[in-house]
Amino acid sequence: MRILVTAGPTREYIDDVRYISNASSGRMGYAIVQAILHAGHEAILVSGPVSMTPPVGCEYHAVESTEQMMQTCQALFPTCDGVIAAAAVCDYQPKSRVSGKISKTGTAITLEMIETDDVLAALGKMKDGHWILGFALEAQNERENALQKLRRKNCNWIVLNRPEAIAAENNTVELLDNTGQTVAHWTGLKTKIAEDLVAWLEVNSGQIK
Amino acid sequence: MRILVTAGPTREYIDDVRYISNASSGRMGYAIVQAILHAGHEAILVSGPVSMTPPVGCEYHAVESTEQMMQTCQALFPTCDGVIAAAAVCDYQPKSRVSGKISKTGTAITLEMIETDDVLAALGKMKDGHWILGFALEAQNERENALQKLRRKNCNWIVLNRPEAIAAENNTVELLDNTGQTVAHWTGLKTKIAEDLVAWLEVNSGQIK
């Protein structure tokens, strides 16, 4: 298989210095890339800024903004069998970016934030026989939100995890299919979950073709 | 000498996942700590989240928010001869932090941002014979803004650098004193600038006592 993997956070700049982001370490996505390579498949990694080194043997594309991640993925997705979208993209971006650095004036400022491009939904629209595995990081109504996300974005499966996952070495996840059923449940080191996930895809991803 | 050093970015959370921050790598501050130790002095490092490992031999305090950085520095500053404030603190924070994760609804949201605690100004208020060296990252009216910052925050000296410094290995800086004079000018690797800065302080910091 040839699998596209997104990983890490994205950044949306307020001015030339400050941005909105999250603490995603990229650990889950990089572990998945490692597991894909270890299982003898091809991995294409599209990653936001993290401190990890891309696994040796993957095709690596560095991005910073959500828009860059989307454009890069749209270009690569048609060449892959499927995508595992483990990145924690910014869902919001400032409506406009200020040039230079906003100076402190002693008063509050108001920041209007619009939604960013939706990378997963964009890939969902160009699905065409490829499979799509999304990640949902949910803090409330977890299963319901994850399932809505799966459907809205045209995913085959979605991995549900919670904010505790961010930047951690361990994770506890459920894999949901598009009927809302939990088809797998893994807990432990992200490296181990990555191996289990890739092994699961080797068995099950062919069925959607 | 016993020197307090701040380094790295701080983070101000919008909700349980998203925050405002900047791309500071901590490289300048960590290089300064290394140079202090190498010159035979004591270094106390108060650092926001970075991917670097604290230099062996320093006293290390990890913080995340600007408020944590301020409180930690206020507790440590009286035990030190001076402070080198190389951290790139968030100047703004959301007025309130949302519990959980803000869900996308398809519409824009408005974020009110207030100024964070001012770490350097807080230390300036408790100066009392200690010396204070600040950093100013300025994108426009650089020298004027840096000098205003020095005076407003009761610093002895301020290092002026520009947004290109962020996360870079190299830097170009000017050291200004409280008369507005450029007393040093360094360019090159941050590790080299750190050594020059510490050597400069060894000669000049005693004069303010």
From TrEMBL, chains A, B:
Pfam family membership, one: DFP
InterPro entries xref list: CoaB-like_sf, DNA/pantothenate-metab_flavo_C
Gene3D superfamilies: CoaB-like
Superkingdom as given in the UniProt entry: Bacteria
GO biological process: coenzyme A biosynthetic process
Domain DNA/pantothenate metabolism flavoprotein C-terminal: 2-201
A GO MF term: catalytic activity
Stated name of the protein: Coenzyme A biosynthesis bifunctional protein CoaBC
Gene name linked to the record: coaBC_1
